[in-house]
Design a protein that fits this description.
The chain has eleven helices and 13 strands. By secondary structure, it is of the alpha+beta class. The chain folds into two domains: 291 residues, Glycosyltransferase (Alpha/alpha barrel); 112 residues, Bacteriophage SPP1 head-tail adaptor protein (Thrombin, subunit H), CATH 2.40.10.270. The strands form four sheets. The chain has a six-stranded antiparallel beta barrel with strand order 6-7-10-13-12-11. A three-stranded antiparallel sheet has the order 1-4-5. Strands 2-3 form a two-stranded antiparallel sheet. The protein is globular. About 5% of the residues have low confidence.
């Protein structure tokens, strides 16, 4: 495929350097990066509306872009929206290594080129009537949209790979989730959490999914890449929901999450594991917990470390039925964690949760703690049942989870 040979070396080099801080490594890899960037420089558009942008038409003979660009033959000049953001990321990566090896003027030049390309994307590749970015522009065809007016690449790869998210991409990710995929759990087979193409533009309201078609990369393309983008975009409520979907799916004997082959409706096919998907999941979880935290979240976690109480979360598990066919639940201990706990006032009323007494409590947990309504918390020898769970936000980021719980009488 066209493109990875440009992108992978500089971006991976930067990540390695950040981990090791080895200047000798930076000097050695700089020789390779400089060759790549020189080739990119040689194929920048020299004039017109897209002057300074990378001409994707250079990528292979015959101007057929596959995988990383428009899969179509296109004239002499092509500006591929997602590709332009990838190339901007390459320039940023090259700039960091250039600074390390003392090439400060080159580093400044590379950053200027990256900023110019991102500005061109924002100002000239936005389609206001579709409320999405164009897929590409070519001198023989003009502006072109992706399938059915949607640009999937911009939400699948750009936040995750190019480390770029603007408010338009955020909104597209949110409306993609609300208007295209089924945000309910996989209660029956055929849940459309993997919708692939949409029968219409999801930016304007609810649309139906089309069939996925057969591909061993379905879960990567339509599940893990989107989940990765949600994490990078900081859309934490959606991240929490997807984590619950993952937990629900993972409990099944045969799930599509890590399956080598998935049918069009999101049901598992092959019966053996795609290790690559598991690797992507591990990387996403690492990124989720290594993201820079907003100041209110850092303050809360400081207080939690200083004053938090050790508690045990215990979850209800169905264990048969009674004589009337109603489910019987037992509570299993799941995880020990910390919470900031305060007792409630007499007759304090919380919306949705009802009235509380002085024996009841408010508990605050770290973001992404797996605590839900109906769970019980074991603290100080007593059990408290969670009545309501509320996410406290800073922008779209969850900074802590606030719960209200009633003391329960047990036979233990």
């Amino acid at each position: 495929y066209s493109g990875p040979e440009y992108f992978e070396c500089p971006t991976v080099a930067v990540e390695v350097y950040k981990l090791c801080g080895d200047k000798k490594y930076a000097e050695d890899i700089w020789e390779w990066i400089e060759v790549i960037v020189d080739d990119i420089d040689a194929n920048l558009i020299s004039d017109g509306d897209f002057a300074g942008c990378f001409n994707w038409n250079h990528m292979n003979d015959g101007a057929v872009m596959e995988g990383w660009g428009p899969n179509i033959t296109i004239g002499n000049i092509c500006v591929y929206t997602t590709g332009l953001l990838h190339i901007a990321c390459v320039y940023d990566s090259a700039a960091l290594i250039a600074d390390v090896v003392g090439e400060h003027s080159l580093a400044s030049e590379y950053r200027s080129k990256a900023n110019l390309m991102r500005a061109k994307v924002r100002n000239q590749l936005w389609n206001p009537s579709a409320r999405q970015y164009w897929h590409y522009w070519a001198d023989t065809e003009g502006y072109k949209a992706d399938s059915y007016g949607n640009n999937y690449d911009i939400i699948r790869w750009v936040p995750a790979i190019s480390n770029y998210v603007d408010e338009r991409i955020k909104k597209s990710l949110m409306l993609y989730n609300v208007n295209l995929i089924n945000l309910g759990f996989n209660e029956v087979e055929g849940d459309n959490i993997l919708p692939s193409l949409a029968a219409g533009n999801w930016m304007y309201g609810k649309v139906e999914p089309l069939a996925l078609g057969g591909s061993s990369k379905i879960v990567e393309l339509w599940f893990w890449s989107i989940f990765w983008s949600l994490v990078k975009a900081g859309l934490d409520d959606l991240v929490m929901h997807w984590l619950k979907i993952i937990a629900d799916e993972y409990e099944k004997n045969h799930s599509w999450l890590f399956d080598e082959w998935v049918y069009w409706n999101g049901t598992p096919g092959a019966g053996y594991t795609m290790r690559r998907s598991m690797g992507i999941f591990i990387v996403i979880m690492a990124l989720l917990h290594l993201r820079p935290k907003p100041a209110p979240q850092r303050r809360f976690e400081y207080l939690l470390r200083r004053h938090g109480a050790n508690v045990m979360i215990i979850k209800p598990v169905e264990n048969g039925t009674d004589e009337f066919g109603n489910p019987i639940y037992v509570f299993e201990r799941r995880v020990e964690t910390q919470a900031l706990i305060s007792r409630l006032k007499a007759d304090e009323e919380i919306v949705e949760a009802g009235k509380f007494t002085t024996e009841d409590v408010k508990m605050k947990f770290k973001a992404f703690t797996n605590v839900e309504e109906g769970d019980r918390i074991l603290w100080d020898g007593n059990q408290y049942q969670i009545q309501t769970v509320q996410h406290r936000h800073y922008g779209s980021r969850i900074v802590w989870i606030e719960t209200y719980a009633k003391k329960v009488v047990t036979n233990d």
